[in-house]
Amino acid sequence: MNVTVCELSNDRKEFLEDWRELQIYLNQNKTDLLLLPEMPFYSWFVNSKEVSEDVQQKSVEQHQLWLKEVEKLETKYIVYSAPETVGTKFYNTAFVFQKGKGHRKIHTKALFPEEDHFWEESWFDREDNISFETVQLDDLKIGVLMCTELWFTERARHYGKQMQIYCYVPEQRGNLLLNNG
Q1: Model confidence at 176: pLDDT above 50
Q2: What pLDDT sits at residue 143?
Q3: Highest mean pLDDT among 2-11, 18-27, 158-167
Q4: Strand partners, 167
Q5: 3-state secondary structure string, the chain?
Q6: More confident residue, 130 or 157
Q7: Mean pLDDT over the full length of the chain
């Protein structure tokens, strides 16, 4: 299986160029699974401790708009995370898009940092039933840890004992970086 992991710029203008380069790369290189960075379709907003419902709403809207572009990418599986509002709760949730089967939830982030530039504990809610379950994708079973959840190595071990692959969703920070292996 060929897996491509990428970073995309947090700067919106550079992000658009990175996205074009990613499209070209995927058209020229066979990739079975693409792993996008954490919440890539809106500028990183948890660097401020002051929570804004307006920013939360805009981030959800931008991610929803970009799903059409995700669906156009030339790869079988795409793992990404997106903010979502469920009732009064605000979550950071990982999904997988599979051609012909649509978008499926994999995991909602539950372990958050609360420090300078990473005020995620202030911004996000946890689901009542925290889960680190796997998802079956054809012959492949995957699970996801997002960014700082990797610090909790017992979760990685838990996944490793029950599956073929787990995905670490990197934080959104740098310029376009592609790794296909």
Answers
A1: no
A2: 85
A3: 18-27
A4: 144
A5: CCEEEEECCCCHHHHHHHHHHHHHHHHHCCCCEEECCCCCCCCCCCCCCCCCHHHHHHHHHHHHHHHHHHHHCCCCEEEEEEEEEECCEEEEEEEEEECCCEEEEEEECCCCCCECCECHHHHCCCCCCCCCCCEEECCEEEEEEEHHHHHCHHHHHHHHHHCCEEEEECCCCCCCEEEEC
A6: 130
A7: 88
Q: Decide if pLDDT at 57 tops 70.
A: yes
Side by side, the strands of the sheet bearing 165-169 are 135-137, 140-146, 165-169
CA distance 20 to 32: 19
Cβ 25 vs Cβ 34: under 8 Å: no
Say how far apart CA 31 and CA 77 lie, in whole Å: 9
Q: How far apart are the first and last CA of the chain?
A: 8
Task: Give Cβ neighbours of residue 44 (< 8 Å, ≥ 6 apart).
Answer: 10, 171, 172, 173
pLDDT, greater one: 1 or 94 = 94
